[in-house]
Amino acid sequence: MAMAEGGGESSAAASEMKLEFTPTWIVAAVCSIIVFISLVVERLLHRLGKVLKRKNQKPLFEALQKVKEELMLLGFISLLLTVFQGAIQGICIPKGWTLYMLPCKEEEPDDAHGAAAEAHFQSAFSAGLFGGRRLLSESGSGAAHCSIKGKVPLLSLEAIHQLHIFIFVLAITHVAFSVLTILLGGAKIHQWKQWEDSIQKQITGDGTAPKQVTRVHQFEFIRDRFRGIGAISVVISWLHSFVKQFFGSVTKSDYTTMRLGFIMTHCKGNPKFDFHKYMIRALEADFKKVVGISWYLWVFVVIFMLLNVNGWHTYFWMAFIPLILLLALGTKLEHVITQLAQEVAEKHSAIEGDLVVKPSDDHFWFHRPQIILYLIHFILFQNAFEIAFFFWIFTTYGFNSCIMDRVCFIVPRLVIGVTIQLLCSYSTLPLYAIVTQMGSHFKKAIFDEHVQEGLVGWAEKVKKRKGPRISNVLATSHAQNETTSKVELSKMVVQTTPAMEEGRSGSAGEIVSRPAT
């Protein structure tokens, strides 16, 4: 009788997990809360997008669209895991296959604990904030089907659920860390605005300095950066570049010299060109590439999870990868500035007028400054992966979980993660923003809406000067006037785009200087 009652209670408990035996008010309440939260988040993102568009922050708006795409991808991954969780659990594998490459060492079970060992494949760990629960449906057809064959499921329902949580935490952490890096780095770059303002006030006439002959070593830029000629000097210059990234990575003399080199190369006819504004605009355009998770980053996630084997301490050694890359990247960016000074000091003993450096792609790895952006993207993602994995393990399985590893491995990982975040924000990102402008080409971000409006106005003035015939045509109707302006702008953009791509200084200077007149 007692067994019958116990069986009836178990059957009732199992039936309560089904939707058809769940009270409608519970279903309605849960759905209402989920829908409400989703709508609030969607409206907030929509409102943020409208604010960015109203403030003419097109690059940041495109970055927000990239975040929405990532959220949509996360939703699609979650949907696939949910839809196919039954099929995944229905895949049966021999138990012997599960004894290899385990993240935790499994104790050898005896006959009395054989059933407890089987539970390892049916449920996740019980400790932690999200632990301490079991999916009753897990004892359904999938697990029973494999148990009859003497096998175990490929992946338990609880493991699939935890995989849901990890992917979500990883994506949110990456986006949050990317935004934090841009905000902190932007605050550092904003401090250079005072240098730009002081330079603008000192510019008179055509912006060139008096024709005065000055010895090269009298320039502060050369004194700070040039380390001599020879093999020993090369080693010293690299060591100096390595140390320089930790303090005073960019000085006023560096900014002034690189600004003048950029203007003399790409827009010589406009000495009052706002280099700081252009640099910020270019950085915002690059932000949309950093905030996303590309396909090759997902490949790295799979590889890292594959190598998380007990005793290998994979995540401890993996924490050094972004740190080493970040230090190498900062050293290279500093050395590019040193190379600019080296070129001038080796070719000239004295200079008439201003010290002008020559931007070139030859200073960068494989002659491609764009590689630096991909490396920063990988570094930020790898660091976010480390931090996300730590918090996921901590909240799911607890601090004492075997996956967490020993304390002597955990503390260095956290210290390295914080160091990477701060160093990338306050040193590497500002260096990237200014040093990558020393390439042979300048970015299309310079061609923003304000410049386009200036070109339209300039084109209309030119048409009016050509004679009454064109003026009468332009004055026939407002619609024709708008059409003519758009056509003229499109022609100009098409004609100037190749020059922008090739970085021709004459064309660039002409493009920028004409609207100003």
- How many strands in all? 4
Q: What's the mean pLDDT score?
A: 74
Q: Please, how many helices? A: 21
How would the global form be characterised? globular
Task: Report the span from N to C terminus.
Answer: 99 Å
Q: Encode the helix/strand succession as letters.
A: HHHHEHHEHHEHHHHHHHEHHHHHH
Radius of gyration: 31 Å
The helix-and-strand class reads mainly alpha
Percent of residues in helices comes to 55-70%
Task: Name the strands of the widest sheet in spatial order.
Answer: 1-2
The residue ranges in which pLDDT falls below 50 over 5 or more consecutive positions are 1-15, 109-140, 470-517
Strand count, sense and closure of the main sheet? 2 strands, antiparallel
Strand composition percent: under 5%
Brief characterization of the structure:
The chain crosses the membrane at residues 25-45, 71-91, 163-184, 290-309, 371-394, 414-435. The chain is mainly α and 517 residues long. The chain is 68% helix and 2% strand.
Task: Give an overview in words.
The protein is mainly alpha-helical. Helices cover 68% and strands 2% of the residues. It is built from 21 helices and four strands. It has a two-stranded antiparallel ribbon with strand order 1-2. A two-stranded antiparallel ribbon has the order 3-4. The longest helix has 34 residues, at 157-190. It is globular and about 90 Å long. Mean pLDDT is 74; it is low at 1-15, 109-140 and 470-517. Belongs to the MLO family. Pfam families: Mlo.
